[in-house]
Amino acid sequence: MQVRGYLSELGINKIPFKSWSDVDTNPFFSPNAQIVPQLDKFMDALRESGDSCGARVNVVASGVPVGWGEPVYGRLDADIAWAMMSINAVKGVEIGAGFGAIAQKGSEHGDEMAPQGFLSNNNGGVLGGISTGQDVTASLALKPTSSIRLPRRTIDTRGAPATIETTGRHDPCVGIRATPIAEAMLACVLMDHALRHRAQCADVTPPTKLENPRKIN
To answer: How many CB atoms lie within 10 A of CB 86?
Structure first.
């Protein structure tokens, strides 16, 4: 099993996925090395302005066996969402197509099956709370850093109007560092489910044997 993540959005900058090999070659965990100079320039301008921005991190687990999770209590996708939301600054979690499913029709979103495996993976490798053998995919939205150098309205200890301005060293985007954290959190959840599955099912295996249960197109 392999768990990998990458930065897919930095503020208003969308990062097209190019290669996993690019992720470890830059401090942004960007899967596209060509866009790194643009991200550097964007962050320098943001830092000078005293403001901050949010980010999106995608994380993928491949090689996850079929059958991990439960249909109601202990759902695999629910445990992943719970774990990801426990990461500081995370304000949204998507599994698979996530909110993109709103605009999809049932004929588009449903993951059809063929003898060779699933034909799509809109459900992020989890159906009915149980792993399908496809890649487990999650996407995290991280909020902009709250501590910025720009004056912000607040109240004092007496409840009277006041302003606050944070000084010192603060990251203009905490989401840049979230990729390895998301990877570790997903790995922990999957390890928990591996142990639970072994304890409950022992050597029980699904009757359907596929050479490649993952996406085939």
So the answer is: 9
- CB–CB of 66/213 below 8 Å? yes
Residue 23: partners with Cβ closer than 8 Å, 6 or more residues away? 4, 5, 6, 29, 30, 31, 179
What is the rounded distance in angstroms from the CA atom of residue 138 to the CA atom of residue 62?
Answer: 12
SS3 95: strand
Contact between 214 and 137 (Cβ < 8 Å): no
**Is-contact 86 166, C-beta < 8 A?**
no
Contact 28, 43 (CB under 8 A): no
* Residue closest to 55 by CA, chosen among 148, 155, 140: 140
C-beta atoms surrounding 106 within 10 Å: 7
Residues of the chain with pLDDT under 50: 216-217
What angle do the packed helices 178-201 and 76-85 form, to 10 degrees? 150
Mind listing the pLDDT tens digit for each residue in 70-119?
999 999 999 999 999 999 999 999 999 999 999 999 999 999 999 889 99
Residues 6+ positions from 25 with CB-CB distance below 8 Å: 33
